[in-house]
Specification:
4-stranded antiparallel beta sheet, 11 helices, 315 residues
Length: 315
């Protein structure tokens, strides 16, 4: 059975952004229209499949004529001028797509030297070689410490906010009332520095103990950051504008990372020190053995230029 939802397509400098207004501003993108449509189908299928698996209610799709790109763009970021945009229906057979992409598994065995496996485990790094479209791609998975205490349970920030907010209280005002302003101000800065485009409500977690005392969990899930939209393509990396204020899916503040910096009080001391050019080697240690030189240089270029801009407007 086909599921169909209207999506807004926005033609940007580095490709197309796609937004589903009916699905909590679900968003994706692609370098070309064809790629954006393919990503939209995958994104829609993943969202609806997850809702079905979790037993969540799926919103009804709007009529195509009721969706207006200019209104969606204004909601996303009123400061960014609207370029070429249009609405298109995206359809997918969720059950069939899930069977072919989400539920299908193939067992493959990979043999690596014992010393290499031991060294990786000592550094809390798991890695493997994956075959994708006939290409061998080396993938890395990092493991961090479990910051949740034994008696704590986790809850998504948007859910915790809905349960505990006061009348007409905005998410940032709620966070400040809870005494978490420094955490969220720092999160805004970090998300700006790495150009994190996906900080929706469930990408912020609250840890609650048995006495209902709550605290924010360490920032996590930064997959849609840095140069992720380039997918390792060196030509795309070369053209990537590290200072462009791209549309983001934020639960707190606006849908502009740059604008969110203005929500931070001036001269607020958020960090113990300042980013220095000498920090480059520390931050990118080991990365040069994984990514091409052009890629790592662009990452540092982004961090350094954005840090200087943040220091200029916030001090």
């Amino acid at each position: 059975m086909l599921s169909m939802y209207p999506a807004c397509f926005f033609n940007e400098n580095d490709g197309y952004s796609v937004v589903f207004p009916d699905l909590n501003w679900l968003a994706t993108q692609g370098d070309t229209f064809e790629e954006a449509m393919e990503m939209a189908v995958e994104c829609l299928a993943g969202y609806l499949h997850t809702c079905q698996m979790d037993g969540d209610t799926v919103p009804k799709p709007s009529e195509l004529s009721d969706i207006h790109p200019e209104e969606v763009a204004k909601e996303l970021d009123p400061e960014v001028p609207l370029g070429e945009s249009f609405v298109n229906m995206v359809s997918v057979d969720v059950a069939l797509y899930a069977k072919e992409h989400f539920e299908k598994s193939v067992k493959k065995t990979l043999t690596i030297p014992a010393w290499l496996n031991k060294a990786a485990l000592e550094q809390n790094i798991n890695f493997s070689l994956v075959l994708i479209n006939g290409k061998t791609i080396e993938t890395y998975i990092t493991k961090s410490v479990n910051f949740r205490k034994k008696e704590e349970r986790k809850i998504a920030f948007d859910v915790y906010y809905d349960l505990n907010k006061q009348k007409n209280e905005e998410p940032l005002a709620f966070a400040i009332r809870m005494g978490w302003e420094m955490y969220f101000y720092r999160m805004m800065v970090i998300d700006y520095l790495i150009c994190n485009r996906d900080r929706y409500g469930a990408n912020i977690e609250i840890l609650v103990d048995q006495n209902e005392k709550a605290r924010p969990a360490p920032i996590f899930d930064n997959g849609c950051s840095l140069l992720f939209s380039c997918y390792g393509n060196l030509k795309s990396i070369e053209k990537f504008d590290v200072m462009e204020d791209r549309a983001v899916n934020n639960f707190i503040g606006s849908r502009s990372l740059e604008y969110n910096l203005q929500l931070i009080p001036k001269r607020k001391k958020l960090f113990k020190g300042y980013l220095k050019e000498s920090d480059k080697d520390v931050l990118l240690e080991g990365v040069e053995s994984i990514l091409p030189f052009q890629h790592t240089e662009k990452i540092w270029n982004m961090l350094w230029k954005r840090w200087k801009y943040f220091a200029q407007i916030c001090n």
